[in-house]
Amino acid sequence: MEKQYNPKEVEEKIYKLWEESGFFNPDNLTEAKSREPFCIIMPPPNANAPLHIGHAMFVTLEDIMIRYNRLKGKATLWLPGADHAGFETQVVYDKKLEKEGRSRFNIPPDQLYKEMLEFTLANKKTMEDQLRKLGASCDWSREKFTLDEDIIKIIYQTFKKLEKDGLLYKGQRIVNWCPKHQTSLSDLEVKYEERQDPFYYIKYGPLELGTVRLETKFGDTAVAVNPKDERYQKYVGQEIEIETLLGKRKIKVIADEAVDMAFGTGVVKITPAHDADDFAVWQRHKSEIPPPVPVIDRFGKLTEKAGPYQGLKVLEARQKIAQDMAQRGLLDAAKTEQNYKHNVAVCYKCGSLIEPMILDNQWFVKTTAKPKSGGDSLRDAAVKAVESGKIKFNPDHFKKIFFHWMANLKDWNISRQIPWGIKIPEAGSNDVFDTWFSSGQWPFATLQTGPAGDFEKFYPTAVMETGWDILFFWVARMIMLGIYVTGEVPFADVVLHGLIRDKDRQKMSKSKGNVIDPLAVVEQFGADALRMSLVFGTSAGNDIPMSEDKILAQRKFANKIWNAARFSLENLSDLSPDGVKPAYTQADEWILKELAQTVQKITKDLDSFQFHEAALSAYHFFWHSFCDKCIEDVKQRIKEPQSEADKKTAQFVLWKVLVDSLKLLHPFMPFITEKIYQSIPHRPKEFLMVEEWPK
What we know:
four-stranded mixed sheet, 3 domains, elongated, Isoleucyl-tRNA Synthetase, domain 2, alpha/beta, Rossmann fold
């Protein structure tokens, strides 16, 4: 063995040996073929940019599980993939075009799609090479892409099944619209930010009401009060005459229980074209009030319905309207609350104000209705699967969060007005599916389109591991669609990891300059140091503080492993373990007992997804029990043996503890442990990665 460990020289060669061995493929694990399957479907990284530190987190945790279960002799499949990532990729590509002085709205659709495909496939290859650098022991022969023809075929089959079951509907509906990206978004793609805005009190004839969004008043079709509000009973059902900036008009007062009597004056204006709640009020009162009147266009500007304010952007119009209304005595400026705090809906990618608006021909999935073919709704089936324990959340507290979200679930808008994605199969439509509609089918779609027998053998999969932040973007949808299409849950355990923060627990962002590039870390310190630092000292589900010091500490640990192994192997060259009949000393019995207890604890922790606990135990056993005590004990007995039998016993103990320590560390630090294993005389297997987990 070389005097110093150099990960840059070792890791690429080791990964090449692994890949060429074919042992990432469970079909080549002869002894495991008939054994219990263990399958993880990799959350497909977006094929639009290099991997970031969050990707390194999921790769580390999933590879730990895969390597551990492979060592336990299971038929272990980790199926890799890549996501075309619809809207997310569109955002990335729009920025690229902007830098080039181009706009997608000026590029022919076919040309734009071709450009984006080439861009995505190039990034996909980069991303896959980076997964290799991180040590991902996935089966590349089964790799899938969300735009593969066989995957798209599955997506269309699900769409038709939903349609046949009456769980799809299309029509004129109010949607969340991003004026910057020119597409609708689902409720889960909308962020809510607390902002301070003026809260205006305006006069509507004999009534007064409060609002923030003055710009929507040109689309008001009614005024509403609560039917229990005695203050306004005499106005209910009446038409009142109001003065507006565009002249006098009449508007009806309706009663609806959705009106909060304690909010403002207890009177609200109803603008069904630009507010989801108002749209619902209109649906309940269609016989009483006119249909919606759109007054804001797709670019966030006022339409001709706003008269002289046409063409103004929303915030600009709001300010101008407030000034003009105050001058006309239609707004009580003295009452205006200048710093009214409220939650504002914004696009989760660009932060632009979401403009609720009505679009034609939008496809929605009914999440709470029962299918015509019978059975539970998508939501109820998912909830029952978690309630019954068929799906477990790790950590368990995420189960309560899941139930809370599911209780408030609304129908799912799956139409997107972007060119990039899987086309909705409808004549005349250029819309594509919400990317979560395709990725929500990922577990069964990948296995149904893989080698014959994969679906029957590996579905339901064992674990779905991902960040807690996409519990509802993705995990909930996989559960709903998986049960609906296959009749089975898509996975038995959901393991959720935290988000990676800087050393001060601040969110990482380019603007703060605290982003850690995982591939730069690998280049400098090695993949093993990065992997171990990601799991070390962080309990399951919690956010992970990261710093260079933490990574450097694990690089030092890698050096410790290397030096201990060098010493051990220098003293084992004449050992044939099979021929030794050990006569253990008290020190030997102590270290072997420590080893057995450590194996038991790490096994228990890995089985319960306590990766940090398992890593800590492996670290402390190697550093303190093996290096500080065992090596110091056997060193003397090998150099100055009291007898040949005692020397052989000492060598055997050194050999066994080293080999088993490498097995325990291998899931966390696969490169250095495999490199050392390849140098061990009389090693039982060709590769450490297919060794047997210590008993």
